[in-house]
Amino acid sequence: MKAVVNVFLKEGVLDPQGKATHHALESLGFSGIDSVRIGKQIVIALNSSDQAEAKRSVEQMCETLLANTVIEEYSVEIVE
Amino acid sequence: MKAVVNVFLKEGVLDPQGKATHHALESLGFSGIDSVRIGKQIVIALNSSDQAEAKRSVEQMCETLLANTVIEEYSVEIVE
User: Fold this and answer.
1) Would you list the DSSP string of B35-50?
2) What architecture is the A2-79 domain classified under in CATH?
3) Tell me, what's the ipTM?
4) What is the pTM of this model?
5) CA–CA separation, B40 vs B4, rounded Å?
6) Shortest CA distance from A19: residue in chain B
């Protein structure tokens, strides 16, 4: 079973990495870009057969380690 | 229109960030984890109405700037 976790800065929190990428893309000649935001995608392979239990466990991982919930929000999706 | 780009290290390329996270999760008491891989998710807001054209443009951005195609692979998905 695989869990896909997306961690993004919350709306309103400045994203300097995204801003820098936006400027870099524009200076390379790409136009029509409104905004760029950059987050992390974490793929965790789990040896568990209980989907609900796996989701709960991964959410616990996010709260403890994977996301800084003061400035970041996360979503967990169980695939396969 | 939004483009979601996922950039991951290719299979077989060592992922030290993922390894470190795996160890950290285990030392926090989480068990049953087979592997952890960490990539980037880049969300680009575009003011374009042509979906095919947008996808082509974002793929070009990946090749030029967003991904290091020697060691990374990417996927582009157009949403909304």
Assistant:
1) EEEEEEEEEEEE--S-
2) 2-Layer Sandwich (3.30)
3) 0.91
4) 0.92
5) 10
6) B44
